[in-house]
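Dear support,

I submitted the protein below through the web form. The confirmation email said the job was done, but the results page showed an empty box. After a refresh the structure appeared. I'm attaching both so you can tell me whether what I see now is the final result or a partial one.
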Amino acid sequence: MNWDDNAYLISKNRYSENSIIAEVFSENHGKISGIIFGGTSKKIKNYLQIGNKIHVNYNTKSPTRIGYFKIEIINALTPLYFDENQKLSCITSAMHLIKLLTAEAQTNKEIYILMDRFFEILSSENWIQKYIFWELELLKLLGYDLELKNMVEKEVVDDKINYFVKSTTEKKHIPNFLIEKNHKKVDLEILLKGLKLVSDYLEKSILKPNNLNLPSSRTHFVNLLK
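What the results page shows now:
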């Protein structure tokens, strides 16, 4: 089997002295793993930054065996943020989520398009807030729609609208921007509450039932924002 496609590099691990095993999310073939011979060489390794957009030629003799990639760089996106630790960490976290939550060799063009949008968000103002909506859209595309608007109750306190969800043990307030879906600038403290809400949902409803842990890359990203 042989094919060509555009893809984002979502993970890489050393395979031998000269090669690596890379995992990409491609436009027409979904998440695929393959060996890149010479992946540790100076000529190639500079291209192999997590998040970079690449063109891949994939070749395998059998669907049950790992194949091989030949790559060309399309857009070196990640190096643009080498001097911005928060955004660089966000790239790692986002790519790790896609690696963790998507199935092997299942095409999902909507997720590929969402990855295009991710890098548009990084270069925009108010990027943290937009990224939270990006995560929620990713979960929705994977069948885990949080549907906050259908879960919350509303109250007015001192002429301000507050949203909350209530259980037998607690009353949890939900940041207004997540319900009203506006992109007006909000304080970092509120954004961190939004990220925590998504983390809690991800951990309790998706990861733990599948014996998975919250990625350390996401924890690192959130800690850098504080």
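Response: this is the final, complete result; the empty box was a page-load delay. The chain has two domains: 2-79, 124-225.
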